[in-house]
Amino acid sequence: MMNFMINAFDSPQQQGLLTLHGRLYTEQQSNALLANLIRGLDWQTHFVAYGRRFDIPRQQAWYADEGVHYRYSENQMPSQRWVEPLISIKNRVEDIASRSFNSVLVTYYRDGQDHVGWHADDEPELGDSPSIASLSLGQSRQFHFRPKDMGESGYIELHDGELVIMQAGFQQQWQHCVPSQDEIYKPRINLTFRQVVMSRQEGVDSMILDTESPSCN
Ligand SMILES: O=C(O)CCC(=O)C(=O)O
After folding, report:
1. Worst-scoring range by mean pLDDT, 60-74, 82-96, 124-138, 177-191?
2. In angstroms, what is the span from residue 164 Cα to ligand 1's centroid?
3. CA-CA distance, 120 to 175, in Å (whole number)?
4. What structural domains does the chain harbor?
5. What percentage of residues in the chain have a pLDDT greater than 70?
6. How far is 93 from 105, CA to CA, in rounded Å?
């Protein structure tokens, strides 16, 4: 179905933990969405935690239902209410994933220098075994994964317009990252749709380690 490379033995695809769907949007549609989101969203370039400022090697924005928050330790990422075209994209993704989501983390990689380090989306507020739907727009980028118990790593290419579902169990067993790729000059946006469990919103996001953990290159 997809073009992807698997270097890892017993990869998350083989375990059924990463499901690759085809294009949700044509090239023309995703170009328009990419331009609209880059222009229209309110991007964050840093966060503050433990009284310190952490610059992040990418831009991010968090949109969610009223009362749904995303915490970096003591500090909360500014939560914004749903706007178009995020609402239409969410509806489309929910249809394919057959589940609903109350929030989305949108990540803007301006070029190949922007990246995200090794982490798992295993914050307590996402519940014990979250399913997360990840839509890519724009430039293809590598998505690396490795078992948390330090087995072999592997990667797939995430292409424009395509949806990947990180199924229940993936965040518990695997870490992932998007390494920098110096040869890339075009932008990419990734949208990860999540369901925050309202009663468990006090968690600490492991992505705070991005700035201090070894990069995934
Ligand atoms: O950009 C991507 O494909 C992954 C983003 C990511 O790691 C995340 O939202 O947790």
Report:
1. 60-74
2. 11
3. 5
4. 18-187+199-210 (2.60.120.590)
5. 87
6. 14
Question: What are the structure tokens assigned to 15, written together?
Answer: 């375990």
CA distances from 210 to 55, 105, 117, 178 (A): 10, 16, 5, 11
Residues contacting residue 147 through CB under 8 Å, at least 6 positions apart: 8, 173, 174, 175
For residue 9, the model assigns a pLDDT of 60
Q: Any long-range contacts for 73-82 (C-beta under 8 Å, 24+ apart)?
A: 73/49, 73/204, 73/205, 73/208, 74/49, 74/50, 75/47, 75/48, 75/49, 77/44, 77/47, 78/42, 78/44, 79/103, 80/42
Pocket mutation for ligand 1, best pick of 107, 156, 193 (most atoms within 8 Å of C-beta): 107
Higher pLDDT, 174 or 213: 174
pLDDT tens-digit readout, 57-90: 999 999 999 988 876 545 567 789 999 999 999 9
Closest residue by Cα to atom 10, ligand 1, is 121
